[in-house]
Structures are given as C-alpha cells and as structure tokens.
Amino acid sequence: MRHVRVAIIGAGFAGIGMACQLVRAGIDDFCVLERAGEVGGTWRDNTYPGAACDIRSDLYSFSFAPNPDWEHSYGRQPEILDYLRRVAAVYELGDRVQLHCEMLRAEWVDRQSHWRIQTTRETFTADVLVSGAGPLIDPVWPGIPGLHTFTGPAFHSAHWNHGVELAGQRIAVIGTGASAIQFVPELQKVAAQVTVFQRSAPWIIPRNDHPTSTLRRRVFRRAPIVQAASRRLIFAEAETRFAGFRSRTIGSAFQAFATRYLHSQVADPGLRDALTPDFRIGCKRILISSDYYSALSHPNVDLVTAPIDHVTGANVVTADGVERPFDILVAATGFNATHPPVADLIVGRYGETLRATWEPHMSALRGTTVADFPNLFLLVGPNTVLGHNSIVYIIEAQIDYVLQALAGMAELGARSVEPTPNAQERYNRSVQSTLRRSVWSTGGCSSYYLDSGGRNTTIWPHRASAFRRAVHRFDPAEYDIVR
C-alpha cells in the first residue's frame, strides 16, 4: 500500500497554497486529492455570470506568488482560476495533484500512527492529513415544498447551467446573497423578466472597481517591491474596516454611509424600504456592488419580499397567495458553512467522525487542530473566516503553523501530535467570549455564521493580523505528543 508523509484534501486556494509551501520547504513526499478534473476550488466551480472576488486582487492572492497582471482591481472568476492554474504549474504540482480522485473516508489508525485514506482511485496511508476543503463546497437548496416539481430548468448558482438560454426568459432568483448581487445585474441585461425573492435585505456598499492600468502592470512586473508595498497598504486599509465591527459608534457611521448609498441608487420609496436591512451592519456579510441596486430599479426586475410558500409546475407561489410563472429558476441560497461536508469523511481515534465530534458545535485549537484527531490540520477551520479582509491571508498563516508543526514533529521524533482538550477548550472559550459581545451575535440577524444552536463557529472575531499572531508559533505545550 502506498504511503506518503502528507496528504492534502482539495486543490483550491488552501490546498494549492499548502502544496506550494511544502515544495518551498523541501518536502516532496505529499499528494493532493482533488475530486474535480482540475484545480481551482471555488473559482473553478462558481462560474455564474458576473462572478468576481469582493477582496482586492493584490490581496486575494498568495504573498509568495504575486501577480502583477491583474486586469481589474477586483479579480473576475476566470482571471482568478487562471492565476491558480499558473501557480500550480510554476510549483510543478501536476504529478502530485490527483484529479478525479475523491476522498471517501480518512480513518486514523492508532497502532500505526497514520491515516488510512480511501479514495475513488485507491487506498493509501499518510502520516499527516491536511484538509484544504473549505466550508463553501456543496451548495444548499432551499427547503421549499414542490421545488423539485418545477417544470423548467432549475439550478444552483454554484453549479450554473451554461447550456440554458437566458435571453428573453422569465427568471426566478431565490436569495440575495453575495452570488445573487453579482449575477442579477447580468440577468437583467438579457432576460425578459427577473424576479428576485428576498428573505432579508443585505447591507451593500459600492464596489469601486476599475481596470488596472498598463503603467501599473509594467511597474509591478519590473519592481516587485512596489507591488509588495501596495499589498501591505491594501491590507492595512482592509484592517481599518474592522473598527466598524468592534465599535458601535463607527459601525453606525458605516451604516449611515451604506444607507446614503442605497438612497442615492434607488429613487422609489417602496423599493428603498424593501431594500433597507432591519439589522445592524456587519451582523451578516457586508456585500459590495455598484450595479445591483440600479439593476433592481429597471422595469424588467421585480423584488418580492413575501415568503415563498411552494412551487407547483412552472409557478412560484408566495405566502400571500400570488402565483408567478417562470421559465427558469436559480437558487442563490449559499452553503452550510457550519457543517462542512468533509467532516463526515474524517474518522478520529475513537471511531467517531469529525462531524459527530463537532455536535453540537464546531471547535478547534487555533482554528486548525482538533482533539482526538491526531496529525489532522484544517485550513479555514472553525472561527477563521473574516468579514473584512482576505481569507488568503488566514490560509497562509495557518500553512505557516502547519509547517512549524511538521518541523516540530521531526525535531521531537514525534509520531503524532494532537491538541489537549484543555488547550482547545481554553482557546475556544476566549473566542466565544468575544463573539457573544460582537455585532455578529447582537446585531439582530440570523446568518450562515451561526450554527443551529445559535453559536458563531465561523467568524474570527478580531483583526486578521491578530489571527496571524495567534498561530505564529506551534507550541508543543498545547499538544499531546506521541514519540
């Protein structure tokens, strides 16, 4: 049976970043398991019209692999996917990334101190398992009675059906999250009618996107130090936005700015009222768009706030009894971030899946390691998501932590490391104490940040730089180490 030192799940930003840093550290005994036919993760899967990042391009990329040639200040999906392909090629990951290879089960074998990993192609073992499978993988469909009976094409925004002709069609859009506000303006340009079903209005601020100049690209190519300085400046600017989450006064000023933006874009008082959120800004993900409000103001777009009661045939029926016929239905209803699918596949020391261990709430030491799951490292684990800055920064900080752990294991001659229950509990008690007082818990909303028990197991409640400090050193005292 084949054996590797490190097995990585997923070839998105996290998996590719981990693989590249292993190469840079001189560790070549690893493999990457990717269930799809190419690398890219979220940016391979989400191809809906208008798909783009809401973090500035220079920051939404690896610090060790800068791209001087971003075409826009906010990268489009094809551009980001191409970037990830290039990074994988530069670091010669081709032979190490096993495509069309889905992990079915990973089970810790205590006697041998290794992971036994079953995939659709083979079964093998690994000393260390790193999950780069983020929480936003498998889309969630709304639980609407009769939805499966819809007679026309119906698909989720995360699995866009590009074979469906949109021009001249009546399109129902369920949801008003980050994906919907990007593709609704694109649908408005071609559809006969777009009807957006809104459960709750999001706070939206302007995108201020623009093409990058030829001069900027030339300077960044010739003087990487200038691009590095620009990245630091963009990061610092993003970090200042965290004050809006921490301070109610600053948050109120930010909310007033978002309200003025809404009023400047939407003239109709009734529509404006429907688009005004009833919770504090920051409680849910703040969205950025410079064309969503204007799209909703066009005569071929309707906003419906009445809840959907059921679907029958080609009709969507709302709770007020109104039936609306459609040709196409698109669900933009996101993902279940508090129950990542990979947790069902990973089995720890005592035969329990990670998901079972995480009932009723997810938790990990420093968002990365879990008690009773030796030699398991989670990238974008519990309480690592940001509401104000780049997740790639968090990923890189965690990767550094994993590399330190690998080096520490080698130095100590350790066969396995796992966090002590006390260290994990102490860390999470501190995180949850901060979250209970935060806008994410007191802002008056329900969001995908919260699990079914109402606990925020998703968001990191401090600045991004504070997370890097939290994982800046692998401390053996927090771990049970088996030699």
Give a description of the structure:
This protein has 483 residues and is α/β, with parallel strands linked by helices. It has two domains: 3-39 and 93-138 and 336-482, FAD/NAD(P)-binding domain (3-Layer(bba) Sandwich), CATH 3.50.50; 147-202 and 241-331, 3-Layer(bba) Sandwich (FAD/NAD(P)-binding domain). 32% of the residues lie in helices and 18% in strands. It has helices spanning 13-24, 42-45, 77-90, 180-190, 214-222, 224-240, 243-246, 248-265, 269-274, 292-296, 354-357, 391-412, 421-436, 439-442, 464-470, and strands at residues 3-9, 30-33, 97-98, 103-109, 114-119, 123-131, 154-156, 170-174, 193-197, 204-205, 287-288, 301-304, 308-312, 315-318, 323-325, 328-331, 346-347, 376-378, 416-419, 479-482. Strands 1, 2, 3, 4, 5, 6, 17 and 18 form an eight-stranded mixed β-sheet that branches. Strands 7-16-8-9-12 form a five-stranded parallel β-sheet, with helices on one face. A three-stranded antiparallel β-sheet has the order 13-14-15, with no helix packed on it. Strand 8 (170-174), helix 4 (180-190) and strand 9 (193-197) form a beta-alpha-beta unit. The protein starts with a strand and ends with a strand.
List strands and helices in order, with pairings.
Blueprint: E1 3-9, H1 13-24, E2 30-33, H2 42-45, H3 77-90, E3 97-98, E4 103-109, E5 114-119, E6 123-131, E7 154-156, E8 170-174, H4 180-190, E9 193-197, E10 204-205, H5 214-222, H6 224-240, H7 243-246, H8 248-265, H9 269-274, E11 287-288, H10 292-296, E12 301-304, E13 308-312, E14 315-318, E15 323-325, E16 328-331, E17 346-347, H11 354-357, E18 376-378, H12 391-412, E19 416-419, H13 421-436, H14 439-442, H15 464-470, E20 479-482
Parallel strand pairs: 1-2, 1-6, 2-3, 4-17, 6-18, 7-16, 8-9, 8-16, 9-12, 10-11
Antiparallel strand pairs: 4-5, 5-6, 13-14, 14-15, 19-20
Helix pairs in contact: 1-12, 5-6
